[in-house]
Amino acid sequence: MGPSTDAQQGGSAPVESSRGSRMDRWLARASLMLSVTKSIADAVEFAPLKGACEAVVTLLDSIQAVKSNEYAWSELLRTVQEHTTTFRRQLAQLGINDILEEYEDSIKGPISDYFDILKELIASICIDSGLEESEFDKGLTFKRLAQQIATTKLEAGVIAGYEKRLKDAESRIMGSLIVYVTISVNASADADVLSQLKCKEYTRPRECQVGTRTEILEQCTSWVCSPNAPNILWIKAAPGAGKSAIASSLVRLLGIHKQRLGSSFFFRRQESTVTTTRALWRNVAHDLARHPTIRKHLAAKIKKGHIDLTTPNIGEFFHQLIEEPLLRVGSISSDQSPVIVVDALDECGGLEGANSEERRDLIETLALWSQLSHCKLIVTSREEDDIARNFALNPPYTIDLLVGDETAIQSTRDIQAYLSEELGKIAGRYSTPSAEWPGEATIRTLAIKANGLFIWASTVVEYIRRGNPKKLLEEIVRGEGTAGMKALYTTVLHAAFPDARSDLLREVRTILAAIIVSYEPFHLPMLAELLGMDEWTVEHVCNALRPVLEIEGTLRFRHQSFVDHLLDPDTTYLAPCLTTSNCHQILADRSLCIMKEKLQFNICGIPSSHILNEDVLESTIDACIPSHLVYASSYWVDHLEHTPASEETLSLVRYILKVQFLAWLEVASLCHFVYDVPPLIFANNGDDLIPLATDMQQFVAHFLDIIAESASHIYISALPLSPPSSAVRRLYESQYPKTLLVTAGGYQRWSPLRNTVSGHNSGVSTVAFSPDGHYVVSGSHDGTVRRWDVKTGIQIETPLEGHTSFVSSVAFSPGGDRVVSGSDDKTIRVWDMKMGTQIGIPFEGHADRVKSVAFSPDGRQIISGSGDRTIRLWDADTGGQIGLPLQGHTDAVNSVAFFPDGHRIISGSNDKTLRIWNVETGMQIGEPIVGHTDYVHSVAISPDGRRIASGSDDKTIQIWDANTGMQIGIPLEGYAGAVLSVGFSPDGHRIVSGSFSQMVQVWDVETGRQIGQPLEGHSGCITSVAFSPDGRQIVSGSDDATLKLWPY
């Protein structure tokens, strides 16, 4: 027996060893694979998968550690069962849904399979032990489990089967994880790219009190759900009617309860430099990018540089960030389309309001939004003229919050409810308030006084909260002078500073003035430093103004109607009354004083010129350049622009420019606003500063990039490399004798050329500025029309193609949304500038090449001059010819233009004459204008319509009286070749011309003399020139296939 038994034992040992080894390998492989999975999950910060992997790794380690321990086996099985539940729950969270929704099967499937393998291992252990999994729920004892496991023998075939399934699952899960990692990394990269769209975070205004404004909110939600309603809802009302509270409530209602909120934005007059039109649409684009299609589109476009976030063309900006991405999504069901909420349109543009460029940009984009069908937009505002005019053209769904005699019953009830709750809270702060205080009768009286204005009610609450509630409430109820906002604000001001000394009132006036026109919100300490006041004084004043001023965080008026009150000429409390001009004066003078005191060479103590700005610690910059100095340095020019500069102010400006200009640039460099330095233009008795300021602008423009990168290089590079004649160099080089000594190189003079624009494949024949001055359009012998960004010189999108021959003439419509082009292919085409596409079909009718085109001042008509000797008038919208051709010239018509009144046309021809035509009758007015001795290539009308300029092959420019046709003065001469193009400056005082001599020249209209030196740089004849709408730039196009932009 013994030998037989020994033989049997000896023969079974390899089987057991094999089984154990196979099990060990199985566990090791599982552990390794999960460790890799965990590392990947860790790298992409995917917490659910990472947590699951960590749990399974721990589990498998436990299996290896306790294979021979019966008690541990039982604990193991219990742990495994708990883990399977957790793992399944983690898989259910395998989201970031917008990333995984397209890949759910390929990722979740393999992981679920792997989970099933682990679960089958549990079942196998239990079954091989003679147990059912269900027995775990029946109070299985450890003793019985140990007895069962003692007899458990896992067969090698079972382990091999698990190993095969594990390898297959491993292959699938690793493949899916690669897909997941790729998607996750791309999504993370997209998020980084799109983060530049996100604007400053803000706190929403207070919401409506619960139970109030229910009818209006229900009306809004009904509009949201209506598929046939206009895509804009306009909530309009007088100041103080509660528009912002409604907008804030809609954000919560649509975001939390309806899951429909796409984005929200709240304009604030006091933060007009932050809450801009561009900030609005950047924020909306960022929020809409939660949709994967929009996210991928925007991220890809931004990465490739196809979206210019700095473009000044708001239509293009809106198209790229909003319209085009939404079109990519395709149709969205009406019950799922996102809703955008935008509050306080009337506060866009700050104190300038409808006169500001920001507000005009906003109105333009609202008109563009009305043409979209993918999203809905809720806006609130006062009923101001520019907003109302826009909505008259594109009627929205409108909700009018009535006040005054038309106050809705519901509004009055809501105000009563608000007052009851808020005054009840105030009463609750006292130990012995009257149970009936304030009483229903008092609440009704207050609601009547509110007259539908929630801001009146909320101001009363804040006013009562700050003093003896019973006394102040009685004062409000009894006082006939507290009905209406003006009377209430007067009461608040008198109560805040009763019997105030004149010096305190001056301080109050100064503090209020600063807050009114600030370009950034102030904190209390910063405001005190900026105004040079004691912080206790500023805090005392601001605390007294709490009924109308929020002081937690940054200082902000509770409602813009208080600003309106302060700026009202009839408000005499703060004598003299405040105006925006003297508010700006206060901050301009204080900013200049702070800079005079604080600016200094090497303000941050940078030890070496080799250190770039990015290597200077933020904490060092913050400590050396305090916030009030940053504000003063950033905005002194902006405040000065709105100020009737006194001699005292100008003396401070002279000191800054002549002593501390370079130190100011240091701050601009280190605080990252050097690219935003505004033009240094000084009027109002500051004419003597203009040459110096102009040279300083040249200094900044020529060294902008190096100054932005390193403050030290202002001194060691920019200053010594400036032209010897530079006013900046002459002023400052003696102050810094240890900088570089330039023996050769550097600028000998400032280059007048701002930008050379290349892209055409052949000569440029025509150029034109857009009405806003932000863009230039050009036509070329290559048959294309191209659009260029003036600021960057970069081509916008792709060329406009369609003409089959030379493009000889281009012109913008008055609104800047269309361009007309004329070509040697005998056609005229109109282009949509926003979409970059041709509108309609070509205009046909000319029998020879089209030499010149122009829009009428109202944009409704187009004129063209042709080699067929005629002028034709076209309907700009339909392309239909209006009337008969204008005939009279005996040779090709080279140039045509409308008079500013739109009733007359001027033309110039190869027949050496100019002719004036009546638009209505098509008849020539008077006799041809004669004087040139060769072809007339170009004609232009002065902005006032009183003068005509013409350029000719006879190498002269002539100026004519538009009414009499008589020549004014003598011809402007000085060219060596034909004058091919002329144009007036916006003020009518200058003429720019281009010629065969490859020079751009500018002439004084009154004296006929050339102004300055010719602008040289082109290597071919100059075919077209134009002034920018602000008169500060000139664009020229040339046969050398380039455009050039010249500052002037």
UniProtKB/TrEMBL annotation:
Residues 1-21 are annotated as: Disordered. The keyword Repeat applies. Residues 212-382 form the Nephrocystin 3-like N-terminal domain. Keywords: Repeat, WD repeat. SUPFAM superfamilies: P-loop containing nucleoside triphosphate hydrolases, WD40 repeat-like. PROSITE patterns: WD_REPEATS_1, WD_REPEATS_2, WD_REPEATS_REGION. Residues 1-11 have a biased composition (Polar residues). WD repeats lie at residues 757-798, 800-841, 843-884, 886-927, 929-970, 972-1013, 1015-1048. This is Related to WD40-repeat protein (Notchless protein).
